[in-house]
Structures are given as C-alpha cells and as structure tokens.
Amino acid sequence: MAYEIPVTQARAELADLINRVVYGGERVVVTRHGKPLVALVSAADLERLDSLDSLDEPDEEQIVSSVSRVHEAGPGRHEQRRFGIAAEHRGPGTS
Q: Residue 33 and residue 40: Cα distance in Å, rounded?
C-alpha cells in the first residue's frame, strides 16, 4: 500500500518523503484534489517497472522474422479442379 500525500504538503516534506522511499521502502503517491498525480518510487522499483515494459514490447527482429514467414496462400489444386479453374495467378518474378 502506498502512502498518499497532497502536493502542497509534499513540497514542504520532499526530503523526508525521499528518505521514506529510499530507506523505508515506501511508495508515496502525491495527490491533487484527492486524485493521484505522481508517485515517488525507489530506483530499484523503477528498474523493475522498466523491465516489465520491455517485456511487453516485441523485439524488432522477432517482428521482421514473423513477417518474413508470412506468405500469400493461393487456392489449392483441389479447389481449382472443384471450381473448374484452369489458370492461376503467379506473383512477379515467378515463371
């Protein structure tokens, strides 16, 4: 659970709040009009949050390799015979 404090009070007690976060392991939520505005967290907590964010973002190489495996599927031979299709489209560069 985080400790909540109004922004006006947080200004006056900033040094104490920093000590509570760093040495006491607390998380402090600064509020304005009763609504959360910002949070003070330790550098270790911030690193953990950043590592979680990086897990959510797919690696660019993974995206490229996934896209490179995608290919256009044309009708199979069975469907061509079933519907009486005599020709098929071939992409550019194929013979």
A: 18
Q: Report how far residue 42's alpha carbon sits from residue 26's, in angstroms, rounded to the nearest whole number.
A: 8
Question: In a structure prediction context, what are the per-residue pLDDT tens digits for the chain, which is 95 residues long?
Answer: 688 999 999 999 999 999 999 999 999 999 999 999 999 999 999 898 888 877 666 556 655 555 555 555 555 555 656 666 666 666 676 66
User: Which DSSP symbol is given to 7?
Assistant: H
Q: Which secondary structure element, helix H or strand E, spans residue 91, and what is its range?
A: none
Structural domains in the chain plus CATH codes = 1-43 (3.40.1620.10)
- pTM for this entry: 0.54
